[in-house]
Amino acid sequence: MEKNNLKISPAPYIKKGLEINKIMIDFIIALIPAIFAGIYFYKIDAVKIIVATILTSLIAEGIWNKYVKKTRFITDLSPIVLGILVALVMPTHVPLWIPIIGSVFASIVVKQFFGGLAQNFMNPAAATKAFLIASWAGVMAKPASDATTSASATEVVVPLMDKIIGQATGNIGEVSILALCIGGLYLALRGRISLRGPIAFIVSSMIMYSVLDKDLLLPGAFFLAAIFMTTDYGTTPMTKFGQYIFGAIAGICASVIAVKGFNPEGPYYAIIIMNLCTPLIDYLTTKKYKVKKEA
């Protein structure tokens, strides 16, 4: 009798006919508006960081594949997407070695140590941001001169359209809400992501901001986290109802951390917290079937 060896991998799964590289290409296309917006406002500083993180991510994954004796140096395009996301959560005032270390940490520690693409239990970009702040808080903090300038600039009323289209505040990928939304809409139309998580995240954040007497227009960090982190295949719930729960609670946590904790990186910390709750959310929202045992 012929024996067939079946290889079964853990979830998440993709539909037959879809290739990882095709999905990654769509994510790269979706990130292009945010990349261009960041370069427009931060010029060469943004270019340096984006190029550095992408190259570092590719090299780090290639060396890892060589170490674990994989047949190919680069197995898919996911290192490029990861490199871009790590760059987008970076401020431009940091020295270049910070995003390089961050890219290595995201590629090897957060991603590869736990099995590779879609097997990590935390979003690599969000975890990297938290790691860099915890390790080099002084370097990641805004310089004193810039902080004084930004504090005095709070008295200036910024037009609503400028806030949406773009302004040079925050990290590279947070400057333009419009650019992020264009990328999210593209992914939704292509069927790569569901908008359940992002919508729940944004709506709950706006409600919480209103409760805390803050402006309803959220900072760009909320939209970056909502569109590209609440939809991460491996670290967010697979059930439809679970995605709503994940997004809603993450949005509330992000608002509380950002407002009450005076921490603009609140959305990334909220994503990490909820990543740890993903297995529980999936368990509670998965339909249970009773099976009758035959005699």
From TrEMBL:
Annotated protein name in UniProt: RnfABCDGE type electron transport complex subunit D
Gene Ontology CC terms, in alphabetical order: plasma membrane
Record field: transmembrane: 23-41, 47-64, 164-186, 193-211, 217-234, 241-262, 268-285
Domain of life: Bacteria
Keyword flag Chaperone: no
Tagged with keyword Nucleotide-binding: no
GO biological process entries: transmembrane transport
One Pfam family cited in the UniProt record for this chain: NQR2_RnfD_RnfE
Keywords attached to this entry: Flavoprotein, FMN, Membrane, Phosphoprotein, Translocase, Transmembrane, Transmembrane helix, Transport
